[in-house]
Design a protein that fits this description.
- This protein is an alpha/beta fold.
- It has a seven-stranded mixed beta sheet, with helices on both faces. It has a three-stranded antiparallel beta sheet with strand order 7-6-13, with no helix packed on it. A three-stranded antiparallel beta sheet has the order 12-14-15.
- Helices cover about 35% and strands about 15% of the residues.
- The site of pyridoxal-5'-phosphate (PLP) has 14 residues, from helix 3 and helix 4.
Length: about 400
């Protein structure tokens, strides 16, 4: 067998042709859309924002959209809209990007981590039930890798306990659960449009909701808490210039040229989604029969626009550590990443008092997983080479 690149052999992809774990797919129409907006009258607070929000509502079948500067801002706005304050607990998935939980801290609330399922890596609903107390105010559930969480079961729990349901859908625009698009079910659904996500605005985010009251609060949170709507004002308007700050908000606005890019990208969502499904199928076929690896279990009810592809090492069949496998894959030029370190393992959270051992399944999962290159713009050759590299490493380290 050809030597592993890490041991001085020939890599599957050389330094000039490395494949990253994720990247954007832009075309000339996207660039044209940005340029056109740069030449228009509005760089921000202009008509592209409303156009984008309308488009997001069409795609997700949600009643309201509030576009904003990034997915983290969207999560913060969501926590502000539902009124998270000191003393409130919010249940959050243990394996996610730190932003899913930081948003609770921004509002002075306390994140309470729920474990994940060993096969889908989505939040474990049984553990959610165990973690509910009389201080619980909300659940932040992540559609991890793009697969929808069992949203109707979570909905039921939230209704029983009078909790808000926030769906962190940074991974899952375009996914449907039981035929309903992500964005149409939770009290607030948040999106991220970072370049590694399925569609991009460079930086960008949005909150979706069906609740008019939450919508108004989200819009206030985005822009300083200032309103020009007479119906929301405390006092009578003093004239055309008049506005009132009625809550403490931020500047979390997105620009019009970013909105223009995203509108153009959303026009290709179906193409991106289909390609992602195709690549997932190729990987599932290749790795499903590899006894060194476990693949993520599909949730039958989720029609998934895949965002990340995770392989999990089988320690009974492989003689290497996760780090050795990760380094070998990097040396082959097919660069992996790990999503994610359990949030509460970060030093900042340790200092707040969170201890290792809180969510044992999440911790064991983290030790064995990595994300391999996965994005819609991958060529068939990129996909084939990634499969080749993963199999090569498995063969080398197979017990
Ligand atoms: C990317 C991401 C975010 C944050 O989005 P930004 O746009 O980068 O701020 C939040 N949650 C999850 C699960 C993410 O993957």
């Amino acid at each position: 067998m050809e030597l592993l690149a890490i041991k001085g052999g020939t890599p599957v992809r050389d330094a000039q042709h490395k494949i990253s774990y994720g990247k954007q797919w832009l075309d000339e129409a996207d660039i044209e859309a940005v340029v056109e907006t740069l030449r228009s009258n509005y760089l921000t607070c202009g008509p592209k924002i409303a156009e984008l929000e309308k488009k997001l509502c069409e795609i997700t079948e949600a009643r309201y959209a509030v576009a904003c500067s990034n997915g983290t801002a969207a999560l913060h706005m969501a926590c502000m809209a539902i009124g998270i304050k000191p003393g409130d607990e919010v249940i959050v998935s243990a394996i996610t990007f730190a932003a899913s939980s930081n948003c609770v801290l921004y509002c002075g609330g306390t994140p309470v981590f729920a474990d994940v399922k060993a096969d889908t890596y989505n939040i474990d609903i049984e553990d959610v039930k165990r973690k509910i107390t009389d201080k619980t105010k909300a659940i932040v559930a992540v559609d991890f890798t793009g697969q929808a969480v069992e949203i109707d079961e979570l909905r039921k729990i939230c209704d029983e306990h009078n909790l808000y349901l926030i769906e962190d859908a940074a991974h899952s625009i375009g996914t449907k659960y039981k035929g309903k698009p992500v964005g149409s079910v939770a009290d607030i659904t948040t999106f991220s449009f970072h370049p590694v996500k399925t569609v991009t605005a460079g930086e960008g985010g949005a909150c979706m909701t069906n609740d008019e009251n939450l919508y108004k609060r989200l819009a206030l949170a985005r822009s300083h808490g200032i309103t020009k709507d007479p119906e929301q004002m405390v006092h009578e308007s003093e004239g055309g210039w008049y506005m009132e700050q009625i809550m403490l908000g931020y500047n979390y606005r997105i620009t019009d040229f970013q909105a223009a890019l995203l509108i153009s990208q959303l026009g290709k969502l179906k193409i991106f989604s289909d390609r992602r499904k195709e690549i997932r199928k190729a990987y599932d076929e290749a790795f499903g029969k590899n006894d060194c690896l476990y693949i993520q279990k599909s949730i039958a009810e989720s029609d998934t626009t895949q965002h990340l592809y995770i392989i999990r090492l089988n320690p009974d069949k492989l003689s290497c550590t996760r780090k050795e496998f990760f380094n070998a894959l990097t040396a082959e030029g097919t660069c992996p990443q790990v999503h994610y370190i359990p949030v509460y393992w970060h030093p900042y959270y340790s200092e707040l008092g969170y201890k290792k051992g809180l969510c044992p399944v999440a911790e064991a999962t983290y030790e064995q997983i990595m994300s391999i290159p996965f994005y819609a713009a991958m060529t068939d050759e990129d996909v084939a080479d990634t499969i080749k590299a993963v199999n090569k490493i498995c063969d080398y380290y197979r017990k």
